[in-house]
Amino acid sequence: MIAVAAAGLACAGAGSLPGGAFPRVVAAVVVMAAGGSVEVAGDAGLLADAGASLSVLPLSVSLAGALTTGYAFLRPLHNRAVTRPGELTARAAPLALLWLLALGGTALFARQNFALSTADSSLGDLGDLLGSAPTVGFRAALPATLFFGLLWILGLLLIALLVSRRAPLPAALVRFHAAVRPAAFATVVLLLAYVVLGAGVGLVAAVTQGHAARTLAVLLLGLPNLAWLALTLGFGGAWEGRVDGPFGLPVPQPLDAVLRGPGPSTVDVGSLAEQDPRAWWLVVAAAVLLLGAGVLAAVRSPARIRPRRHALHLGVALALATLTVCLLGRVQARLGLSLLGLGDVGGLGGRTDLTPVLWRTVGLALLWGAVAGFLGALAARRLRRRGLVDEAAAVARPHP
To answer: Which of 51, 84, 255, 325 has the fewest other C-beta atoms within 10 Å?
Structure first.
């Protein structure tokens, strides 16, 4: 996580931050990626006021940590089918403790203050004269970081057990293996496929359209944020947001144009297509990849499961995954500076919001997942699956 965060911030130009702040900014990004809390505060002297807030998860960093931790947890467990709950606890507890210790040390290191220049502001000289040069800083909140970090690691280990076909389960839970694991695995593969596809599109854009460093920064810090947003938009979901002021999101131009409307804007395929008709390809990509997920879930399931059960399993799995993506992908950022009560100074104030329309997005995920599960089960009937017997071969085989 530290390596991915450092590479992304370096591509974004954070290596030139004053006061040796780069390592501390890297630590703050890792804390946010683990679900921790980073408090942003401003100070502009006695005659001015500065305020800031930031709520965003750099999901590229989160995904790097999740894949590494999941592999480390599952690797020693692949040698049997059933285990005892105590064994899983004994395996998870040291990993969680080590994680919390590392995260706590990172949170203590994640603190820094910066001075904001008002040189281009008409009130800049007045601010200097009154001794009210604005500063903004960040500080990781240790209790909240440890609490949410614990939830992060426990949730990750649970997902790892749900997804892995070879990881053992306690005897009481083995009966849920066929109902949960194939759909969970197919959903995770779908999410990762979107990340890989987004990485390919981003690398092509970096080569062909310039701004390579900025594009790589987006890939290394927020690729899943954009890729999974594209997934939700592709099956008909919607987000609401707005961008005011000089600050914004490192997003494709059509999305930025929608968010910079006169008021709060609804982001869906239709509004994006008004800016760029190629946005309709998101629907095609969602349909193809969701059908592939349905086939994959059916292939990994016992042959006795009926198509309507596949529809239920994949629909629920995709709805839960979409709910998680919606909760993790929200963005809220504020920065305001006022002098003598006169409001924003020099255009330094701004806000950025992007929140999901939960009822619409999760509901359509349930519907699309159910359809993909049903059609995938029908398509997989032609494939050899676990538990499927080749009747022709059985008839031809001589009996002893």
So the answer is: 84
Buried b (16+ CB within 10 A) or exposed e, 352-378: bbbebbeebbbebbbebbbbbbbbbbe
Please write the tens of the pLDDT for every residue from 81-100. 667 777 788 888 999 999 99
Q: Which element (helix H / strand E) includes 59?
A: helix 59-74
Structure tokens, 322: 């979409």
CA dihedral sign, ordered 82, 87, 89, 94: negative
340, with CB counted inside 10 A (0-12, 13-18, 19+), is: middle
- The Cα–Cα gap between 30 and 365 comes to 30
Q: How far apart are the first and last CA of the chain?
A: 60
The residue type at 49:
D
96-112 pLDDT tens trace:
999 999 999 999 998 88
3-state helix, strand and coil shares in percent for the chain, rounded to the nearest 5: 60, 15, 25
Judge whether residue 183 has pLDDT over 70. Answer: yes
**What's the rounded Cα separation, in Å, for the pair 31 and 36?**
5
Token pair listed for 82:
């059933």
Prediction pTM value: 0.85
Instruction: Give the residue from 302, 52, 40 showing the smallest Cα distance to 177.
Output: 302
Contact by Cβ (8 Å): 239, 332: no
